[in-house]
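Hey, resending since the last one bounced:
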Amino acid sequence: MEIRSIILEMMAKIAQQQKKPLAPLRDELKLMDSGLDSLCIAILVAELDDEFGIDPLSSTVDHNFPVTVGDFIKLYENAIH
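The structure tokens again:
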């Protein structure tokens, strides 16, 4: 399964678990407009760390959090490849 699919599935699963309405996920959608709150994002990052064994957010040099869903996915795709 590709990284993008795994991340999108995890986002949907976490939204369901946390009872958050999830917006249709598109690359240009702002992460904070997705329906996931900061707790959901933290859970997502922790689960992705378990899945991939990396946390690219902890090693970003400029410490800029990705703004869009696409930015978030690219961050992981770049860290893994």
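The mean pLDDT is 91.

Sorry for the duplicate.
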